[in-house]
Amino acid sequence: MDKIKISNLEVFCNHGVFKEENVLGQKFLVSAILYLDTREAGLTDNLEKSIHYGEICKYIENFMKKHTFKLIETAAEKISMNLLLNWDNLEQIDLEIKKPWAPIGIPIENVAVEISRKWHTAYIACGSNIGDKKKHLDDSIYALNQRETCRITKVSDFILTQPYGDVVQDDFLNGCLELKTILNPKELLTCLHEIENAEHRERIVKWGPRTLDLDIIFYDDLILADDDLIIPHIEMHKRDFVLKPLAQIIPYKRNPVNHKMVIEMLYDLQK
């Protein structure tokens, strides 16, 4: 991906743990690497197809001066998130904030915090088999899209499927969606649980009936195995109600674990 680099933007502002830092202020140096596709801008010589680095610098300066934080970690986090949310063609940012006058009582060139934040692509399976199933799915998609940190880019058709497991229950309405998000996997999981809870989801019986079920299937090409979250979804290759709608929107996406495309996994399941 292409990059625009901003090096050592000087900002005099009032961040720090000590009261004197908040009152007297000090110099900070901010550097940023902006990741985007500059191809069209380069071919057309059109600034609107790129990012106005002067506006980025002004935004960073104004933000640093307007707010007061104890930690430069907080300043870096909030600046990065706001830039990603407010500049449509910005895909990723690496941000560094240096504090040359850090009051630690011994000679030092500077103290710095450097972070990297980006838009991630996640694929979410959704299902419902209680009450107005379509409304539960529609409401969940709307609620997710209303989150500032989430942008739904594709939604599959909803399909009626038989329940998975041995519990006797009504048929499910299932679908999948593509999501751009700044949230990390655990934050995204919490977000999905909040939306499930708003639809009165109850976790009483495994694979039992539910008003709403939202599962992370893919998150970029991440492989993650924690006690409460496994990505890619460990059961996806066994579930046609996940693979069928997923194949509508990303048939050639490869599972980073078994290296099979979605359409291949669906074919294997149907053999």
Automatic annotation (TrEMBL):
Gene3D superfamilies: 3.30.1130.10, 7,8-Dihydro-6-hydroxymethylpterin-pyrophosphokinase HPPK. Pfam families: FolB, HPPK. Its EC number is 4.1.2.25, 2.7.6.3. One of its GO terms (biological process) is tetrahydrofolate biosynthetic process. Pathway: Cofactor biosynthesis; tetrahydrofolate biosynthesis; 2-amino-4-hydroxy-6-hydroxymethyl-7,8-dihydropteridine diphosphate from 7,8-dihydroneopterin triphosphate: step 4/4; Cofactor biosynthesis; tetrahydrofolate biosynthesis; 2-amino-4-hydroxy-6-hydroxymethyl-7,8-dihydropteridine diphosphate from 7,8-dihydroneopterin triphosphate: step 3/4. Residues 206-217 form the 7,8-dihydro-6-hydroxymethylpterin-pyrophosphokinase domain. It comes from the Bacteria. Keywords: ATP-binding, Folate biosynthesis, Kinase, Lyase, Nucleotide-binding, Transferase. InterPro entries: Dihydroneopterin_aldolase, FolB_dom, GTP-CH-I_C/QueF, Hppk, Hppk_sf. The keyword Cytoplasm does not apply. GO terms for molecular function: 2-amino-4-hydroxy-6-hydroxymethyldihydropteridine diphosphokinase activity; ATP binding; dihydroneopterin aldolase activity; kinase activity. It catalyses: 7,8-dihydroneopterin = 6-hydroxymethyl-7,8-dihydropterin + glycolaldehyde; 6-hydroxymethyl-7,8-dihydropterin + ATP = (7,8-dihydropterin-6-yl)methyl diphosphate + AMP + H(+). The keyword Signal does not apply. In the N-terminal section; belongs to the DHNA family. Catalyzes the conversion of 7,8-dihydroneopterin to 6-hydroxymethyl-7,8-dihydropterin. This is Bifunctional folate synthesis protein.
